[in-house]
Design brief:
Layout lengths: L5 E4 L5 E4 L2 E2 L4 H12 L4 E2 H8 L5 H12 L4 E2 L2 E2 L1 E4 L2 E4 L3 E3 H14 L9 H7 L13 H24 L3 H14 L4 H14 L2 H18 L6 H12 L1
Parallel strand pairs: 1-9
Antiparallel strand pairs: 1-2, 2-3, 4-8, 5-6, 7-8
Organism: Streptomyces sirii
Keywords: Two-component regulatory system
Pfam family, one: BTAD
Length: 237
């Protein structure tokens, strides 16, 4: 982040900063900035008012939108929200942490070369939630998009670390992915592979059986054939 730029943080918490200093904003203004940051092509005023204040009458929602716009249309010397007719858009001059982390996730998925010497910071960044605690319905799809991106990145990183023989950070990275989505199989399968590679057969079988019991309890389904073959091959050797 440039020390003289405007910066919007949506991961872990909401924060707007300019020139390195945090600027407190009313809740309505926060929600408007978050909505525009997630809708890159902009939002019409009526649609923004409806999404942000769905329980209000159209006239009340429009008034709330005008109130939210006042403190954030321009902050100090920076234009924060551009408007063209009825369309509102977050100014390109505002950097958003989610945009940067999506690019980071894509680089991880593509393959890091060389691997970072210490993955803790990267894993910690990928573990950040999108505006945790905010109950807004318009956030649900964007949360899912971010969760899928960071899960694929964490799983890819764990696989890359395993291939490089970095078993402990690979395990910790896979466990971070499991904490985000315990049902998803990929990270569990990577952990089984890591235990097998380390010669910890009992640990591999325990992980498999724990995951199988979870699936049975939650969904009444079994692990994939790909994962089952892993443990069958170990048992048969």
């Amino acid at each position: 982040m440039n020390s003289n730029s405007a910066y919007l943080e949506l991961l872990r918490t909401f924060e707007f900063a300019y020139a390195g200093s945090r600027i407190p904003l009313p809740l309505g203004a926060q929600r408007l900035l978050a909505l525009l940051a997630l809708q890159k092509h902009g939002v019409y005023r009526g649609a923004a008012a409806e999404q942000l204040w769905p329980d209000c009458t159209p006239s009340r929602a429009a008034a709330n939108l005008r109130s939210a716009l006042c403190p954030v249309r321009r902050i100090r010397s920076v234009t924060v929200i551009d408007s063209a007719g009825q369309r509102l858009r977050l100014s390109p001059s505002v950097d958003v942490d989610l945009d940067a982390m999506r690019k980071t996730a894509q680089r991880v998925i593509t393959g890091l070369s060389p691997l970072p010497a210490d993955c803790d910071a990267l894993v910690g960044e990928l573990n950040r939630e999108l505006l945790p605690g905010w109950p807004d319905d318009w956030l649900m799809l964007e949360r899912e998009r971010w969760d899928q991106a960071r899960l694929h990145a964490l799983e890819s990183l764990a696989q890359q670390l395993q291939t490089a023989g970095e078993y402990l950070p690979a395990l910790q990275t896979a466990l971070t992915a499991i904490a985000i989505d315990p049902i998803r199989e990929t990270a569990h399968r990577i952990i089984v592979e890591i235990h097998i590679a380390e010669g910890n057969i009992a640990c591999a079988l325990k992980r498999y059986h724990t995951y199988r019991e979870l699936l049975q309890q939650e969904l009444e389904v079994a692990p994939s054939q790909q994962m089952t073959r892993l443990v069958q091959e170990v048992i048969s050797t």
